[in-house]
TrEMBL record:
Domain Right handed beta helix: 100-237
Signal peptide: 1-24
Protein's recorded name: Right handed beta helix domain-containing protein
Source organism of the structure: Photobacterium sanctipauli
Xref: InterPro entries: Beta_helix, Pectin_lyas_fold, Pectin_lyase_fold/virulence
Pfam families named among the record's database cross-references: Beta_helix
Residue numbers spanned by region Disordered: 32-61
Keywords associated with the record: Signal
SUPFAM superfamilies reported in the protein's UniProt record: Pectin lyase-like
Length: 374
């Protein structure tokens, strides 16, 4: 179901993207080399229906389960502790509607955990870490709402990833210290169709804190990180963010995206909004905590809508002054608002469109965001 949905989404996105490309290339003589010609960026719209990024509310599990019950491979349990002991390699765990105050330790590989349309884990941490502690490899968690997680170390998360290769889909993680925290060497983390909001603690906990080898994010929303947390902090060698919305809104956040140790970063076809209360003037930071000279360094930021709404200044891409040899491509984006401190850098003026304010871009007042159908 999810795979088919993603596929048709991508097909449609591809068709739209290529028709925009043809239109742009056939346009007037004033068209810049990248197709930037004064027309607004066109982002692909998803299909209507169970929504990309539309929280957990429209999620349907593979097997229906009654409220308060947990189905593990066909056997029903009325509490999570008993359900947990029945989980094996490859298990399908479906959790019914309800508010849960027990966490789940997932120790086996290839386990899929699915919530129902209103499955909410509230204020639970196990092992002093998280609501879900995942030690198995290739685990998928879908259709879960999680909130209210805090622990003595102030890094309480909805999910702590300690095994390799985790997928989060249709999750709504909010109002906690951290959304997800992953361990070093934990393979790939994929986040799709999900919503993270109101997360962060003391500048050290974040909505997404990835120590993976690679991080891929699509069709998701990251809103209003708090207490100087980043929306996305990644130490992964490779980070890809596409078709997503990353917005400070009124939050006192730090950076929208912090790529602490450099690597390969791509952000495309997304909305990035730095809000009026952001504590750090940078939207994106790259390499501020030491860069591994053996990893190739590149930054590709293309076809995004970028709102600059911090009156004390906005730096789109911050990098340490002494960091060299990073290939930076910033093309085909629409920048809206200001002041825009680094608009003279990275050929931004030549290859992107810059609008002084929301009105000139045809966008309503703050906090409205461009509708990309998420
Ligand atoms: Ca910021």
């Amino acid at each position: 179901m999810t795979i088919q949905h993603s596929f048709s989404w991508l097909l449609k996105a591809g068709v739209l993207a290529s028709s925009f490309f043809l239109f742009a290339c056939g346009g007037s003589a004033s068209t810049a080399p990248d197709g930037s010609n004064g027309d607004p960026v066109v982002l692909p719209n998803p299909e209507p229906g169970p929504g990309p990024g539309d929280d957990d509310d429209d999620f349907e599990p593979e097997v229906p389960v009654e409220e308060g019950m947990i189905n593990v491979d066909g056997t029903l349990f009325d509490n999570l502790a008993d359900a947990q002991s029945a989980i094996n390699t490859g298990s399908l765990v479906v959790i019914g509607n309800g508010t849960y105050s027990q966490g789940l330790h997932i120790q086996h590989d290839d386990v899929t955990v699915q919530g129902s349309e209103d499955t909410h884990f509230k204020g639970v941490a196990i092992q002093g870490k998280a609501t879900f502690v995942v030690d198995g490899d290739s685990v998928t968690i879908e259709g879960i709402e999680c909130s209210g997680v805090s622990v003595p170390d102030e890094n309480g998360a909805c999910v702590r990833q300690q095994g390799k290769d985790l997928t989060l889909s249709h999750v709504h993680f909010h109002s906690s210290e951290q959304g997800i925290l992953s361990s070093t060497g934990s393979g790939k983390l994929t986040i799709e169709y999900s919503h993270f909001e109101n997360l962060g603690k003391n500048g050290y906990a974040h909505a997404v804190y990835s120590n993976n080898d690679s991080l891929e994010i699509r069709y998701s929303k990251f809103h209003s990180s708090k207490d100087q947390g980043h929306e996305i902090k990644s130490r992964a060698a490779s980070t890809l963010i596409e078709y997503s919305e990353i917005a400070s809104l009124s939050g006192v956040d730090s950076r929208l995206v912090d790529i602490s140790n450099g690597g390969s970063l791509t952000i495309r076809d997304s909305v990035l909004e730095q809000g009026p209360n952001s504590a750090n003037n940078q939207l994106i930071g790259f390499g501020f905590e030491g860069v591994d000279g053996n990893v190739s360094q590149s930054v590709e930021l293309t076809n995004n809508i970028v709102l600059l709404e911090r009156s004390a200044g906005n730096v789109f891409l911050g990098m340490p002054d002494d960091l060299t040899g990073v290939g930076v491509t910033i093309r085909g984006n629409d920048f809206v608002g200001g002041p825009f401190n680094d608009q003279g850098s990275h050929d931004i003026e030549a290859y992107n469109d810059i609008y002084p304010d929301r009105t000139s871009y045809g966008l309503g007042p703050f906090p409205e965001l461009p509708n990309i159908g998420l």
